[in-house]
Specification:
The chain has 194 residues and is an alpha+beta fold. It is flat and about 75 Å long. The protein contains 4 helices and 7 strands. The two termini are 46 Å apart. It has helices at 9-19, 28-33, 102-107, 189-192; strands spanning 92-97, 121-127, 137-140, 144-148, 153-157, 168-172, 177-183. It has a 4-stranded antiparallel sheet with strand order 1-2-7-6, with no helix packed on it. This is Dynein axonemal assembly factor 6 isoform X1. Residues 20-62 are annotated as: Disordered.
């Protein structure tokens, strides 16, 4: 049976100080008495050993001197909240595609099956009546498709990561449909497609 190492005494004292109000038990004067070692109020950050340089952490370096945060600190797709956008969302469909040869279909020589795990490409069809190709703005990221036109806006979180640099898009004016084909990149693709 494994035993746990005892907590350091200063951690327990800091926790006890945090949980107790002090001599007055509720007086406003006693709230000033429950201050941490640096003179500030005790809080969850004051439990445990003190970090070098005090309680405040150094700011992270930014790429631009005027930027609040760097691009690495913002997860992909955070800025894409379209809930405030008054434009309507177009109708869309996601279709998964795989390359099938005769030996796959008739002889079953590869490990391919009809599931999406064996698909290489993702085809996104966006219905756009009364839209011209020149009005379309399309931005593809690894997990996000951002489509904009004067009348419509679609912010689509993709079900699988894609290769954002090698996609194909075409506008079919007869059907008023934008077709975006993206190559998926997943961890186990080298097993599925070998």
């Amino acid at each position: 049976m494994a035993t746990r190492a005892p907590l350091p005494a200063n951690s327990l004292l800091a926790l006890a100080e945090l949980l107790s109000l002090g001599p007055g038990d509720g007086d406003e004067d006693s709230a000033d008495a429950a201050q941490g070692p640096a003179g500030g109020r005790s809080g969850p950050g004051s439990i445990g050993p003190l970090k070098a340089g005090g309680a405040s952490a150094a700011p992270l370096p930014t790429e631009d001197g005027k930027a609040i945060w760097s691009a690495a600190e913002v997860p992909e797709g955070c800025a894409g909240d379209a809930s405030w956008d008054p434009r309507e969302q177009p109708e869309y469909e996601i279709v998964f595609k795989q390359q099938v040869r005769a030996e796959d279909l008739f002889l079953g020589m590869s490990r391919k099956d009809p599931s999406t795990a064996c698909c290489e490409d993702m085809l996104i069809k966006i219905k756009l009546p009364d839209t011209k190709a020149s009005d379309i703005t399309l931005d593809i990221q690894e997990k996000l498709l951002d489509f904009r036109s004067p009348q419509k806006r679609l912010l689509l979180h993709l079900p699988h990561p894609v290769d954002a640099t090698n996609g194909k898009a075409r506008f079919l004016s007869e059907q008023a449909t934008l077709e975006v084909t993206l190559r998926m990149k997943r961890e186990l693709d080298f097993i599925n497609f070998s």
